[in-house]
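fwd from M.: "can u put these together and see what the complex looks like"

so here's what she sent:
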Amino acid sequence: MANVALRNVRKTYAGGFEAIKGIEFDVGDGQFCVLVGPSGCGKSTLLRMVAGLESITGGEIDIGGRIVNAIEPADRDIAMVFQNYALYPHMSVYNNMAYGLRNRRMPEPEIDTRVQEAARILELGAMLERKPRQLSGGQRQRVAMGRAIVRQPKVFLFDEPLSNLDAKLRIAMRVEIRKLQRRLKTTSIYVTHDQLEAMTLADILVVMNGGRVEQIGNPLEIYQKPATTFVASFIGAPPMNLMALREAGDFHAPARDGILGIRPEDLVISSDTPAGGLALNLTVEAIERVGAETYVYGIRSRQGEAPTVSARPGELPPGEVIVRVPGAIGPAIGERIRASAPRDKLHLFSADGRQRIDI
Amino acid sequence: MVEHRPLNDVIAYAILTLGVFIVAFPVYLALIASSHDAGTVIGGHMPLSPGNHTLENYYRAVFVGGSRTSREPVGHMLTNSFISAAGIAVGKIFISILSAYAVVYFRFPFRKTAFWIIFVTLMLPVEVRIYPTYKVVSDLHMLDTYAGLILPLIASATGTLLFRQFFMTIPDELLEASRIDGAGPFRFFWDTLLPLSVTTIAALFVIQFIYGWNQYLWPLLITTQDSMQTIVIGIKKMLTTTDELAEWQLAMATAVLAMLPPVAVVVFMQRLFVRGLVETEK
């Protein structure tokens, strides 16, 4: 049981590349913290710094009231689950879990109790004598979890533990990890690039980009009030529609320059414009039907209309607006539609996208 | 896509059969020669069917030695060969697995340099550096000793390279998991790296055992006493007689015996050996 605190943590590689540019956040005792961001944003590096597998070139990391900067991974009282599981291929499931305890010279009966208990929780009882290569992906994943559990560490660290599993299993394991964490009440830090995983698992969500923190907070809060355009387009699928303010039609904003954002599910196809809200004329370009809902991809058709603001991955191509329509019925391709949103569903950001402006 | 045409099969089998014949015939001839008496072998017309002096020839080769040359019996030479071949194989594995471990897993000054120096020795086989090596061994008073037979042949890059390539295929996460599990460098080596290397070790053992067994020039140079002779040298000496007829039937029996240990090593370790060379799954 412990909280984890990061104080202005930095990582600069020998070549001068700054991977982590001063990060601060706290994870309270028993909380589940998720680091999310695109590839290369430094989230895995940060996790490995907490684990002690990467050196810390600036700032402090505090685990349970102890600065761990100079402490070996084995002595930080953490356990880590790796993306490729990193099970010892030549050891049985039992020995994989027991190995770390044996290295700590724990008495054999105590080891046995802990391993059996972990095997019971993870339903691995029948597989204790098998080798990792005889297990399926999901089972290996559970052994990796078991190896972390038996240690009874202060902190669990997860490095994209589900990304090697197929979609169905991933969802099942996601739920399992959450249940397990609630039950053990162990402070956890979890790295993922999957925003859905991040939303569903996190008590605290840390959105990272380019070695910095973009926003920290409760996942729903972040979804409802993204602090920057990066967060707005990264969290939520399909991503938020973003457009330069001067092109936003009839909308009257408190600022003259800026970026206007609207989530696809907040746009409604209707002919009238809500007071103070936004209305867009679109020509339907593509339609995706996923069953419960339909995504309509429209190009704004007004003459001389400039494209939407977009450049980074996860964002829309220029000029395109996505509208989410419930059910399987939607407009046809080529049809002209009018989509509108009320004023309270709009998000406004400064022109550089770095700041949220309240409407 | 492999094509299947009967004619291709016939040609392929014909070529393979020819290959087997070319390799096997001299061995067969050696077997035949070792079963006849001296007169028949020297007579000029080598029979192609076995004679009836097999037991006598092998008994003499192993326990008595050539009658007129007063050389060591084969049994002793086999032991010498075995000790040096096994010593070379084990020593080489020991040295190369440790040096590969250092080169792959430790960051120390001049690591790259160390690796390249090891690599360069590939271009300097025993034959090339034979004079300095002889001088060193002789100065260390290791002529006519097992140490002298074994040590100079242990140092070489092949094993280090093989282990280095293997270690580089082991995912880094395994090392990191070990570190988190509280295993230091020695524990990681002993508990994880070594068990994973078993097949590679077996492959290297087979290759190096045969390499050591077949050594000719080096043992010839540094052994002068008959008691330190290896079997390969022994066969050679059986055939160089000054005023006597060479006892070909004994030489052939010895050659056949000399073949057995390497064959046994290959046969017993074949499964591991092949896995060690082709295995990719970790």
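replying to her w this: Confidence is low (pLDDT under 50) at residues 303-307, 309-315 of chain A.
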